[in-house]
């Protein structure tokens, strides 16, 4: 089958190779997916650049965690899927339900299968059915970014109607968090360095847009723009660089969902005490959360926002486009 | 001031009397409200008919718990309100926040002030600011029915986007629960004996309407209409008469919020075990819940549905109309 | 291997047969346990009497869900266990973590493997490590009764130090709930028809014992004996027959954990409203809950109470002893 | 009445003055307490040194927030207390129940009454009944440190039997947290720079003691000493200086309760993500939490540990002793 691989030891996107690999076959309890669309996350940049957990990949690695397609074969004892079903793999194959089990193996890295290939074989427990109203391209945006946004909004302090939700920037997690929060009856404040993107975010349902370039003290601006209330939930995709302002924006008893796993730096935690606030780290989410996300998407007819779709042959261009800083939503590579 | 009173020992709505009472004055920490609109709840029928906790009222009682108006005077030490503020009283004056404190004294009964009068004086802690987008008539529908609907949807199992919420009938609690659940991204199933009312409920956002007259096994019908899933949350306003069908409608790990405080009867609890379900009793809610409700209403521009508005002089007609069985939403009496 | 079987269509304990069965072998991901001790639950009576879900067993069934032993072989790909580990099977093999997945297949019934045999082979995901401080006999009491008691005390309203916990009778669930609640800093009220058993329960840490024969209004007695507070959590093992008194005993905002899955009958739910109480049904629990239970047991050096140990040859006597009504704790059959 | 005062503008403990003040009288809804014992917190050092919120006190201030005594008079409309009751004031008079209301006014600072005086008059809502088994001296240790420890262990991630709880040092909050966690069935790890204090902590029920001087990487040591598990809950009384090690000690899905309100500094939040951990800021707690704490103390016969009792005349010596670094538990000043 056609696939892409990251060679062992790679430290740059230019190492990406298109290869021909043997077609995998489903064993007992396994499902074979014909991948139709995949999606890039910033984590995938880290993997190919050798900056992910543990450094450069040690063996040739099919990249990407997020893909959707149709089931073309099932192994013995499979009960949850049948040929013809539309499905997506889950980011952390070992995390079915409940709290994080400490399993750090995710698709597209550390020797786990990647989705940038024609076929993907995994245990049926590592797949979900995708929402009927979504295309393969749209569904491919969900396994990492979508589930992360859902986890950020529903675990710990669950978003409720009337809450103020703050999302940072217009990347895939932020935009889907905007859509989910708005569907849940919250008012959304979004930041960007671009007034044009803020306008697009408002068209998607954001109530307030703040340009963080022209308003460096945007934390205070969030509080003022919400009548002194601040953000009940912050979807913190920026990490230490943005956390001080996120804390300034936080409402009393508010919660910050911390997602920017790859960033380093330090913060002053004292505002959490003054506000009885919470800072919660998270790493994507479980299959049960993915299923709940899909239900919410279908019920509210949410359409994940795709910035650009690249054909399979232009995977490298997709990697490069992602870091050019113009993103609004997700990047998709079809297969 | 003009007011209505229920005479001591009353057991019928016809006992309602219009009277002239001394105008109350706010003491330290108290607020005086010029009541502009009030709203009827079924509990008010019980009070005037002598069937509320403890039987007929023992002393002349100004009726009704739900009213909205404007602040016309404040006593010393008041900090949360000023003259001119639009406000509503809370159902249980002693319940500010947290879980139910066991305080059964509520406005309009048991010797507590009632709102069917020109003025209402209470501690400032027993008032909330009303949503700017609502009229006095609309805001008057919230203290009992609105807070009950909010409590039913947000405590214990908090509604989330994609959930199935089942509301029973088209009374005030059910219709506001419909609106709140829909604003929270849930899909709403509603029951009624009238196809015409089901059509109106769908126009308000309900996804599925079931006529419980033509479909006596409506619990099973809810499950079927939701692809076998059932209701994640049931807003149970019917009591033992409807609980068996509500349990049949319940989803795995679902929750029934039990509100029909005045009904008696028995149920078989076994379905709760099979479904790992929860049955939770509740009595309206706290001031903090009322404030959250108001925030949710304002953020989502929800308009409480008023069936009919009666002028002050026709309060008795309002009581009688309420029990005629044609309700869709709330009844309001202006002052 | 030696084993017991319930013949197809059995409706009486006398149908129990000792048989010789082929020794099972572990496949990929599977673990083979040499069962050393098993334990009886009332559910096992229902299975052999043909009164469990779906009636009499349709195929010969090895009975019992609860057993402990040592790992004697592991199949390929097993990572959580090694030969020599001490382990127990979990009641619901498909329930690893999170809320109840709706899987009603449990060991010892409905065609699933039973533990009253020399060997048990299951997926490694269906086993837990047992607490080092427990014997096989003690550990064998936990999979159903122990996990049920843990679920009853920790999900929904989690027991906290100072709470009043009410347990009904002196069966296996009640006695372990007593021990767990006491270890969690709660005060335990226990009921029994025998003053002698109440004395034994107090020796185990119960604060208050109430003889439900001499005090038929024991719900009120619980409230009085706790200074008017009542029970924050009721471990309801009795079902509709005891629920009215359990509700009378319930504290404000209290929770009843409903476990008596096999009993029928009706209750009046109104007290739940007056008390803002919760009635939650549950069916044993997940592997994660079992692991937490084991951690709690080990940390607090809790010793499950065994009423009597029967040798393998006397399994039928164990079944008969269980229904003779003299239980205090659990019955064990060694293998 | 006899009292101590901090003069306006004070920046040193030596400014403390004994004075004679008019005896306060209870107004409507107020209670008058004859203070019998008070207790010092580190926050009180900040107040007298001019380092508390807002700098030096602006008006003469009676110091200390924590005191217990007996009710000697009640004003009109008081329902919760009667003369002769034993009671303690609450740290934040405006926080009765529910989440933190954003009220930063606490006893002994910012113009609020202080307890280092013969009498204390507050609204009855600002008092709790004290546990019958405690002396006034013991009860006086609870309003700030005790409620803080309770909040740290029960809100967000509530401690459960079998959990690992990490407490830092042997100050008042840490020692009471140790006692409460142990009563709740948790295993407690405690740190100190003194092996002698570690031995005393073990005598109180700590399972593991770690000398942070001889083991600078004590976070890793906690993980190792708990079989690789780490701390489910950290009672973080140290602030940024200890947080990096606390995070290293944190278990998967663990929670850090952040209490060291007065310390500044920065931390690297990334470990929270890797561990799906939570960092929660808190400021003492509500009256409802205080009442729950008292119930837990009484049920488990916990005796707060008092390092030293000073007579009223030696209040200054108490202030000085507190900062000498030899504390194990709380300091008390009798009145």
Write structural notes for this entry.
The structure is a homotetramer of 335-residue chains. The first copy, chain A, folds into 2 domains: 2-144 and 284-334, Medium-chain alcohol dehydrogenases, catalytic domain (Quinone Oxidoreductase, Chain A, domain 1, Alpha-Beta Complex), CATH 3.90.180.10; 156-281, Rossmann fold (3-Layer(aba) Sandwich), CATH 3.40.50. The radius of gyration of chain A is 20 Å and the shape is globular. The first copy, chain A, starts with a strand and ends with a strand. In chain A, strands 3, 4, 5, 6, 7, 14 and 15 form a 7-stranded mixed β-sheet that branches. Chain A has a 6-stranded parallel β-sheet with strand order 10-9-8-11-12-13, with helices on both faces. Chain A has a two-stranded antiparallel sheet with strand order 1-2. Chain A has helices at 42-48, 136-139, 142-154, 172-183, 195-203, 218-225, 243-249, 270-274, 287-300, 315-322, and strands spanning 2-5, 17-20, 30-39, 66-74, 86-89, 119-123, 127-129, 164-168, 187-192, 208-211, 231-236, 250-258, 278-281, 306-310, 330-334. Helices cover 26% and strands 25% of the residues of chain A. The first copy, chain A, has 335 residues and is an alpha/beta fold. Chain A has 10 helices and 15 strands. The model of chain A has no long low-confidence stretch (mean pLDDT 96). In chain A, helix 10 links the parallel strand 14 (306-310) and strand 15. Chains A and D meet through strand 12, helix 8 and strand 13 of A and strand 12, helix 8 and strand 13 of D.
